[in-house]
Write a structure and sequence with these properties.
Strand content: 25-35%
Helix content: 25-40%
Largest sheet: 5 strands, mixed
Number of strands: 9
Strand order of the largest sheet: 5-8-9-7-6
Length: about 180
């Protein structure tokens, strides 16, 4: 018995497609940030730390360690993983455990989607939410496969995600064939 084409397509492309990419190395960097914060707190509360040059260097060391620790800790935890969610109306990208930064791209703004087998942080200037004038915008949390969205305004948005080929198929299946072209 053959499935009706619409039923087969629905079975192949669920209403909501989700994917994720994770970078476990970011946890090590988060530990470095936590260590910096712990050092700052230790400097602030331990009476054994006496500074012969006065209180100002001690305050600067404490504030510097805590600030650096917070920046590293939250900066890395924000990009431990990226979640991609595709429904009938939009592509949504959320980073880290709090889901920030987040970007929602309506499918009406997507001209096409391509599979990229080798996205590297080096080509984007590192991990995280990146923008390069010659390449577009990207969320890169690890080296490897990803999705490149071509938007109607001429920009691109790249996301590292596991099973990126399935994501591209699901996005292409949802794109309207007669969507408007770029506005000039």
């Amino acid at each position: 018995m053959r499935d009706h084409p619409r039923e087969a397509n629905a079975a192949h492309h669920p209403d909501v497609w989700t994917g994720r990419a994770t970078n476990r190395i970011q946890w090590l960097l988060a530990l470095v940030g936590a260590g910096c914060m712990a050092l700052g707190i230790e400097l602030a509360v331990d009476p054994a730390w006496t500074w012969t040059s006065g209180i100002a260097p001690l305050v600067m060391a404490v504030v510097g360690c805590i600030a650096a620790g917070l920046l590293v800790l939250f900066g890395t935890l924000a990009f431990v993983h990226v979640d991609l969610k595709l429904d009938k109306e939009c592509v949504e990208v959320r980073c880290g455990h709090m889901g920030v930064p987040r970007r929602r791209i309506p499918l009406a703004h997507v001209a096409g989607a391509d599979f990229d087998p080798e996205i590297t942080p080096r080509h984007w200037g590192g991990w995280g939410y990146r923008w390069r004038p010659e390449k577009g915008t990207a969320v890169v949390v690890r080296r490897g496969e990803g999705v490149v969205l071509r938007l109607w305004d001429g920009h691109t948005f790249t996301i590292t995600v596991d099973d990126a080929e399935a994501a591209v198929r699901a996005i292409r299946a949802r794109l309207r064939p007669n969507a408007p072209g770029p506005v000039h």
